[in-house]
Design a protein that fits this description.
It comes from marine metagenome. Belongs to the SCO1/2 family. The chain is of the alpha+beta class. It is about 35% helix and about 25% strand. The protein contains six helices and ten strands; from the N terminus they run H-H-E-E-E-E-H-E-H-E-H-E-E-E-E-H. The protein is globular.
């Protein structure tokens, strides 16, 4: 009986490895070889500098958003929040996993505001801000559009930015760009893909 129970628990907790084509169909574009990217320096709250070195040894999800985002950012952040809640409920080790929110609106977001916004979803999430030149340098390497766009649909201090890239990036423990999740997002697929990728290491 104990053996049967172990096999059942193992089956539902052990992630299934997905092929490259399965990953793509389910919303993740995986590079054939993880991509190198240059070092960067952005600020978190309390003037703490965050660099490429801080990504080594961890699976890092990076999302480019902003605190006054009315729709896309809360959806993406809630998705990642749900992922972390599920992983925690399964008792999985979270020490080698982190989430980084980088603001695309540094003219209006302070490092403290971004970090507070990120931590409202999960206290372990990190929010960071870079000056526009540093932001452009980082985003260009990840093919993320962050050129300051016109502001429209202002309501209740919520601001919609045109041309807002909405991908969620995945950086592997070697601090290399492994690929990205593409919208529309689905919580079950997101969990399936993430567990498959992380379990491969």
């Amino acid at each position: 009986m104990a053996l049967v129970l172990f096999m059942f628990v193992n089956k539902i907790t052990t992630p299934r490895y997905l092929s490259e084509s399965e990953l793509l169909v389910n919303g993740f574009y995986q590079f054939s070889e993880p991509k190198e990217f240059s070092d960067f320096k952005i600020m978190t709250s309390e003037d703490v500098v965050l660099s490429k070195q801080d990504l080594i040894g961890k699976w890092t999800l990076i999302y480019f958003g902003y605190t006054r985002c009315p729709a896309e950012c809360p959806v993406a952040m809630s998705l990642i929040k749900g992922l972390y809640s599920t992983l925690n409920s399964k008792g999985l080790d979270m020490k080698n996993k982190q989430m980084l929110l980088v603001t695309i609106d540094p003219e209006n977001d302070s490092a403290e505001q971004v970090d507070s916004y990120a931590k409202a979803f999960n206290k372990t999430f990190i929010g960071a801000r870079g000056e526009r030149p540093a932001l452009l340098s980082i985003a260009t390497q990840f093919n993320v559009m962050v050129v300051e766009p016109p502001k429209i649909n202002t309501f209740n201090n919520m601001v919609h930015l045109e041309n807002h890239s909405n991908n969620i990036l995945l950086i592997n423990p070697d601090s290399k760009y492994a690929g990205f999740f593409r919208p529309p997002f689905d919580a079950e697929k997101f969990l399936l893909i993430y567990q498959s990728l992380v379990a491969e290491r």
